[in-house]
Amino acid sequence: MEMLVVLGVIILLLGVSIPFFASFSKGAKLKTAAKDVTAILNTARSLAINQRANYSVVFDYSEFPHSYYIADASQTAVNKKYYLPKTIRFYRPSDPEAPTNFSEDKATFSTTGGLTANSGSVWLSDKKGDFRRVNVSNTTGRVKIDQEP
Questions:
Q1: Angstrom distance (rounded) from CA 109 to CA 78
Q2: How crowded is residue 76: how many other Cβ atoms within 10 Å of its Cβ?
Q3: How many domains does the chain have?
Q4: How many CA atoms does the CB half-sphere of 68 hold within 13 Å?
Q5: 28: which of 5, 98, 126, 131 lies 20 to 30 Å off by Cα?
Q6: b or e along 1-25 (b: 16 or more beta carbons within 10 Å of the residue's beta carbon)?
Q7: Contacting residues for 69 by C-beta, under 8 A, at least 6 apart
Q8: Helices marked H in the chain — which ranges?
Q9: For the whole model, what pTM was predicted?
Q10: Are 58 and 68 in contact (CB under 8 A)?
Q11: Rounded CA gap, 12 and 23, in Å?
Q12: Which among 42, 128, 135, 123 has a CA at the least distance from the CA of 89?
């Protein structure tokens, strides 16, 4: 009898905790995607400084899943395309048609590490409507993630 009570308590705890972990993993995908975009932006910045040439991160949201990649000054892809998870997309709540405010949807880094144009951001969203914004400072090229839409 005691064994049945213990098994019942374990099953009850599992039943209560599974929805929590399911929603936690969905939020983790958005955080991870924002960190991945940040890493590619930082890689392009490092390439621009080390190679003494402009490098861009191009955001492509014309097809699903949305993608991004590093391009050199001639707009040739330097490496592979990176794809967002299927549940994540580039999406700006104030302007759904333009999920970035970078000129031509690309963040171009100069040889000093800063952006060649004004500061910019790219927004990521999941199916629950949660957002992450990845900001890039034009003078320093510093990349930062926040939750403001």
A1: 14
A2: 8
A3: 1
A4: 28
A5: 98
A6: eeeeeeeeeeeeeeeeeeeeeeeee
A7: 40, 57, 58, 60, 77, 78, 79, 80, 81, 82
A8: 2-51
A9: 0.82
A10: yes
A11: 18
A12: 123
Query: How many residues make up the chain in this entry?
Result: 149
pLDDT at 24: 59
* Residue 90, domain CATH: 3.55.40.10
Could you tell me the two tokens for 51?
């190679």
Q: For residue 34, which amino acid is it?
A: A
Query: pLDDT tens, 97-121?
Result: 889 999 899 999 999 999 999 899 9
Structural domain harbouring 130: 2-146
Sheet of 143-146, strands arranged across: 88-90, 120-126, 131-136, 143-146
